[in-house]
């Protein structure tokens, strides 16, 4: 049976459609049911649509201030959600006055009951004006609908339009209330459409070259972008805009001037690449920079596109030379270790194969919070026989996976980390990383080092209850 009902799900049999065990002889279309509402009764690990837009797409932009139109809770949780550092450098050569501004500040309208009854537009107006006054150096103001304001039906667009003229800066509304889709993925889509519709094509870059690219879906998690950037620079390729890691507001406005778009996170940002291609004729290619093999393949593809094959080879050769000794060391230590990867979506098909190919590890389980059909097809293609693939696992399933599949390490998020630790299983962060960056050649060594450090930590020998848990099974 390719689909599997977990013991803990006996009362919610619909979960069976979401859990698939890879069998190569199966028809290709056998994948977990996905991108649907969480089944009632499940304690999901998912986030909301607002989190998808603010926490993923726009939160990385370095020179804007965010105004969340909500009761204070959404504002609080909308801050500090993701580790995407920024440099103070702006494209006009100036420096932004506050370093990592995007990680430090968020503003909210702090709605109360009376605003729900009488409308919150006045507060939104006041808050945007206050944000503009408090942070006069920002280059735009982004404002967000949430569940509450989505239900009230405040006309945020009208306020934004009016204040844009009054302040003299772009004021943009992102209309992705938490309930507007089954997962954060809906917020990605809204973020892409809003930025495309309002910004792309509205400004011109200070200069262009024949080798300008957009790096789309790269959020500079723990410095990923800063590992990749030198590769492009050494090849003579210029990143005109990053969408949106360490990027400025203006960079989004001139994405239409690039010669090629690279799409790194293909779940959250293929939308804008498609729209730019359709309207401005800028082609895009999908890329993967996790692990040395994919890195080399994709740099070669990029080199071929721009006639810079030799330059690509040089980058690959120099980085492989640099990392090979450490790669050998970690392979020796990690060969045969089993892993369960649990991310939002794409990292589940980016990461298992490099771990298997370069480190000799084995993926026993893969699970995602919001992946769609195309992503599950890739996951299925890239994992080995017998690997369990789970869509939107609930908290009890997490425990059953640990007990049944006994992974030596879990790569997941903060919500799962401590459940795993309490069960005596090493678990480290694959969303925001432990000690990243994890992308690129050098990044893969950081990932291997953190896996090694987690598995070999002496603390696991001191967990007294671990044997009890194992014996109970
Ligand atoms: Fe793209 Fe991302 Fe991911 Fe994502 Fe995310 Fe993320 Fe992720 Mo956490 S943008 S889809 S919404 S690769 S925050 S950096 S790790 S769930 S798999």
Overall pLDDT? 96
Q: Could you tell me the radius of gyration in angstroms?
A: 23 Å
What gross morphology would you assign? globular
- The CATH homologous superfamily of the largest domain is named Nitrogenase molybdenum iron protein domain
Topology, number of strands: 14
Number of helices: 20
CATH class type of the largest domain: Alpha Beta
CATH topology of the largest domain: Rossmann fold
Residue fraction in strands: 5-15%
Explain this structure to me?
The chain has three domains: 132 residues, Rossmann fold, CATH 3.40.50.1980; 101 residues, Rossmann fold; 150 residues, Rossmann fold. The protein is of the alpha/beta class and 473 residues long. It is built from 20 helices and 14 strands. The longest helix is centred in the last third of the chain and has 26 residues. Helix 12 runs antiparallel to helix 13 and helix 13 runs parallel beside helix 19. The strands form three sheets. It has a six-stranded mixed β-sheet, with helices on both faces. Helices cover 43% and strands 14% of the residues. Bound molecules: FE-MO-S cluster. FE-MO-S cluster (CFM) binds next to loops.
Produce the secondary structure layout.
Blueprint: E1 19-21, H1 49-58, E2 64-68, H2 72-77, H3 101-104, E3 107-108, H4 113-118, H5 121-134, E4 140-144, H6 147-152, H7 156-167, E5 170-174, H8 185-198, E6 212-218, H9 224-234, E7 238-244, H10 249-253, E8 260-263, H11 270-280, E9 284-286, H12 292-306, H13 309-334, E10 338-343, H14 347-350, H15 352-359, E11 362-368, H16 373-382, E12 388-391, H17 395-405, E13 409-412, H18 414-422, E14 427-429, H19 440-455, H20 466-472
Parallel strand pairs: 2-3, 2-4, 4-5, 6-7, 6-8, 8-9, 10-11, 10-13, 11-12, 13-14
Antiparallel strand pairs: 1-12
Helix pairs in contact: 1-8, 5-7, 8-11, 12-13, 13-19
The structure holds FE-MO-S cluster (CFM).
FE-MO-S cluster (CFM) binds at residues 56, 82, 184, 219, 221, 265, 267-268, 343-347, 431.
């Amino acid at each position: 049976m390719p689909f599997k009902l977990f013991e803990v799900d006996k009362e919610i049999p619909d979960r069976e459609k979401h859990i698939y065990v890879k069998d190569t002889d199966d028809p290709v279309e056998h994948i977990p049911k996905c991108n649907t509402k969480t089944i009632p009764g499940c304690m999901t690990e998912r986030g909301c649509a607002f989190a998808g837009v603010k926490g993923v797409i726009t939160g990385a932009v370095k020179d804007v201030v965010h105004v969340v139109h909500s009761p204070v809770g959404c504002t609080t949780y909308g801050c500090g959600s993701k580790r995407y550092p920024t440099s103070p450098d702006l494209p006009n050569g100036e420096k932004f006055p506050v370093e990592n501004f995007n990680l430090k500040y968020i503003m909210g309208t702090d709605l109360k009951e009376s605003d729900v009854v009488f409308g919150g537009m006045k507060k939104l107006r006041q808050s945007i004006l206050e944000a503009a006054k408090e942070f006069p150096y920002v280059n735009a103001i982004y404002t967000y609908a949430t569940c509450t304001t989505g239900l009230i039906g405040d006309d945020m667009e009208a306020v934004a339009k009016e204040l844009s003229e009054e302040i003299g800066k772009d004021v943009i509304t992102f209309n992705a209330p938490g309930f507007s889709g089954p997962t954060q993925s809906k917020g990605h889509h809204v973020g892409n459409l809003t930025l495309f519709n309002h910004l792309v094509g509205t400004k011109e870059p200070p200069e262009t070259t024949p080798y300008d690219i957009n790096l789309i879906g790269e959020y500079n998690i723990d410095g990923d972008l800063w590992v990749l950037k030198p590769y492009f620079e050494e090849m003579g390729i210029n990143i005109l805009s990053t969408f949106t890691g360490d990027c400025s507001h203006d960079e989004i406005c001139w994405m239409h001037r690039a010669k090629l778009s690279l799409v790194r996170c293909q779940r959250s940002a293929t939308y804008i690449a498609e729209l730019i291609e359709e309207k401005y004729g800028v082609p895009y290619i999908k890329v993967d920079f996790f692990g040395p093999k994919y890195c080399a393949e994709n740099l070669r593809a990029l080199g071929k596109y721009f006639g810079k094959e030799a330059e690509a080879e040089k980058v690959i050769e120099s980085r492989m030379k640099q990392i090979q000794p450490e790669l050998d060391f970690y392979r020796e230590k990690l060969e045969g270790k089993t892993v369960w990867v649990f991310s939002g979506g794409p990292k589940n098909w980016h990461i298992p194969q490099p771990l298997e190919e370069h480190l000799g590890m084995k993926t026993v389980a893969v699970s995602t919070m919001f992946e769609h059909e195309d992503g599950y097809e890739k996951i299925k293609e890239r994992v080995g026989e017998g690997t369990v693939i789970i869509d939107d696992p609930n908290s009890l399933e997490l425990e059953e996976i640990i007990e049944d599949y006994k992974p030596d390490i879990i790569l997941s998020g903060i919500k799962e980390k401590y459940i795993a630790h309490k069960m005596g299983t090493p678990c480290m962060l694959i969303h925001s990383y432990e000690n990243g960056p994890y992308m690129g050649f050098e990044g893969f060594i950081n990932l291997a080092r953190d896996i090694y450090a987690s598995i070999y930590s002496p603390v696991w020998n001191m967990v007294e209850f671990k044997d009890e848990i194992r014996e109970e099974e």
